[in-house]
């Protein structure tokens, strides 16, 4: 193993590029740490099930279905320097963010989920369809309390590409309207 490879034999460059290298590393890491539910019938962590159900509701496009997953005081942090970045506080702000993502036809496909206590880590492919142009891996850290998402923090595999896409897709209103 070289110094640029982890214990799975995947190089840092493979991890940064994403794709099969990252998927293999995550799968290997899951085997080393016990992972979540698997083919041998291990019991699935209830918070992993909650996030799977959340993604099913998200995929339906019906934002009202998402409300039941969120605590009233939810905080959802979007990284970057673009019109949609920042921390959304409360259900209405989080749903407003998802409404904007819906305008760009965002989709998500889960690659990996694991839970430890109150936290669920999610790795997924996220891409836009209207307009096409962003297709990267994202990681989310979800904190769960009383079967509700109380916090989510996004991490983009390519923040520069995400910033460029969001600036191109979500134009700010001209001054002074923007400040109203």
Automatic annotation (TrEMBL):
InterPro entries: NTF2-like_dom_sf (IPR032710), SnoaL-like (IPR037401), TAT_signal (IPR006311). SUPFAM superfamilies: NTF2-like. Pfam families: SnoaL_2 (PF12680). Residues 52-151 form the SnoaL-like domain. It comes from the Bacteria. This is Nuclear transport factor 2 family protein. It comes from Kibdelosporangium philippinense.
């Amino acid at each position: 193993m070289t110094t640029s490879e982890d214990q799975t034999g995947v190089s840092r460059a493979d991890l940064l590029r994403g794709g099969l290298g990252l998927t293999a590393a995550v799968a290997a890491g899951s085997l080393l740490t016990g992972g979540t539910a698997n083919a041998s019938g291990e019991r699935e962590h209830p918070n992993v099930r909650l996030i799977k159900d959340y993604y099913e509701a998200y995929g339906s496009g019906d934002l009202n279905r998402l409300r039941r997953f969120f605590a009233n005081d939810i905080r959802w942090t979007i990284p970057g320097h673009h019109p949609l970045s920042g921390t959304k506080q409360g259900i209405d702000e989080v749903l407003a963010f998802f409404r904007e993502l819906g305008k760009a036809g965002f989709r998500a496909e889960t690659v990996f989920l694991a839970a430890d206590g109150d936290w669920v880590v999610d790795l997924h492919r996220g891409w836009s369809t209207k307009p096409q142009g962003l297709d990267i891996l994202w990681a989310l850290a979800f904190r769960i309390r009383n079967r509700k998402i109380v916090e989510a923090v996004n991490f983009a595999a390519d923040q520069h590409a995400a910033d460029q896409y969001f600036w191109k897709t979500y134009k700010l209103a001209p001054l002074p309207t923007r400040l109203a």
